[in-house]
Structures are given as C-alpha cells and as structure tokens.
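Researcher: I'm preparing a figure for a lab meeting and need a structural model of a single chain. I don't have an experimental structure, so a prediction will have to do for now. The sequence is pasted below. Please return the structure as tokens so I can convert it later.
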Amino acid sequence: MAAHQVNVYFWLIDAIASGHLTRQDINNRWSRCRYNDNHEDEIPERRFHRYKQEIEEIFDVEIKCDRARGCVYYIENKNDINGGVTRKWLLNAMSVHSMLDQAQDMSEAILYEDIPLGTQYLTSIVDAIRTRTQLKVTYHNFVRNETYDFLLSPYCLKAFKQRWYVAGCPSTHPTETRVYALDRIQRIELTNNVFTYPKKFNAHTFFAPYYGVFRNVDPKKIIIEANEKSTQFLRLLPLHTSQKEIRQHLNYTYFEYFVAPTFDFIQELRTHGTDIRIVEPASLVKVFKDEAKKAYQMYCKKKKTD
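Model: Understood. Here is the structure written out token by token.
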C-alpha cells in the first residue's frame, strides 16, 4: 500500500474522529489537505465510500452516517478503538505522523522529541514473535561496558519513555525472562531456530506490578500524600495502573499503589519534589529522608571554592 494512500486514510479517520462532520465539512477540509494532490474541491462520492470501506477492512474503523442528524459522519466503534491499546497506539501514532507531515512548512513552530536508535529492529522482532523464531542478537551492556552475542526467544515488546524494549528468554539464561533495550542492540537477525512460546506468559501480567521495565524489586503497597497541585496532575496522568484515591484531608489527597519501588518509579516520584510525601512503606520513607538530608548537607556545606 502506498504511503500516500495510508496518509489519506489516517487523515480521514482523524478528521471524522474530531466530531460529527457532514460531507460538506469533509470536503472543505479536503480542499485544504496536503494530500489533495489534484487540488480538488471535494472527494468524489464514489471514492469517499471506497475510502470508508477500505478503512474498515484494513484498520477495523467503522465510519457511519447519522441520517437523523442531517447525514453527519462519525466513528461507530470509537470505544472499541480506545479499548484496544495496540490499535489505539497505532492510530494515534499515525494521526500525529499525518499531522506533522501536513505541517512541514511549520517546522519552526512544532517541536518534538527525537526517538532513540533501535526502532529499525521492530519489524524483525515482531516477525520473530509471530513466527516463534529465535533471534541472534549482538548487544552492548552499558554496566559492564561489553558487547556479546546470544540467541533470544522474544515474547513481547514494550515502549517506555520514548524507548523500546524486548522481553524474552536469552540463551545465556535459559530459565529466565529478561528485558533488553533496543537502542543497545548493535545487530539482530532471524535464525531458523523455532522456540516454544510459554503458555503461562502474559505480557500485561509480566509488567503489571512494575513502573517501566525494571523488575529487580518485589512489588508492594505504597501510599503517598499529594498536595492540591499534584493531586490534579495525578488524577489526569496516574503514575501507575494500580493507582487509587483512598482518602482526603483538607488540602491533601492520599493515593495508594501496588507497584515495585524500582529505580524508575522512585525517579518518577522525585519529579514531584515537595508536592508529595511518601507515607509508607517505612523503607521507602527512609530512602527519601536520607536523600533530603544529603541534599541539605550538600547545600549547607560551604566549599573552599565558593
């Protein structure tokens, strides 16, 4: 399928998803669309219905017409799309890509993060997961500063903070499931070795009690106290899927989590500064108390160079 055609599909999905549109509304937008190579004033009726059919067949997105409201078009299965995480991610990613592609002449006004290296391996890893085929991986370990080769039986992919990770069983540790960052992979290739996908493995369950990708700490109940500012932020963007409000006192709200206090999670808590306070467990309270003391001592200690 041509890239231009895919862009047209996602442009139409994005336009109709933004609200109920009449054919005239759609035509008005099409007349200004970057993908309208022939500068048409409208999408011909026959082609429009062909687009609708192809979008449903390829992306499982149903575009329907509400004749009772004056023949306006809308996305019928919007809830299904939002409920399917992978499909929702794909549609959102392609929608953003389509928007940025149309706004190439506004590059000075639209700033976005660069995606780190490693995305070129996604296709090979997806193929390996689908066909249950081992991968030969050349990987650089930052901690030990060494590069080594191993066979990997990939189970799933996970995106976290603009980085991609693959979880699977390595030949170096055949009884464990480990996680590898794609941007540390130097080479990857499909082999002819077929592996057996473990029946009990579930990607969502594997990562559920963790924030991010590190799994070197056991999950436990964590309670934090958040001020009004952080409360609003946490309600809008929960720290973890287990987040729940347990009580309120004056200007503070208490949130409870069942999550592993890994390095990633602790770092995320730190970003809230004094807007939150750790209530339990005591071990995590001690971590933050000790860090606060060290920071206080560091800034109070007068150095000779000052």
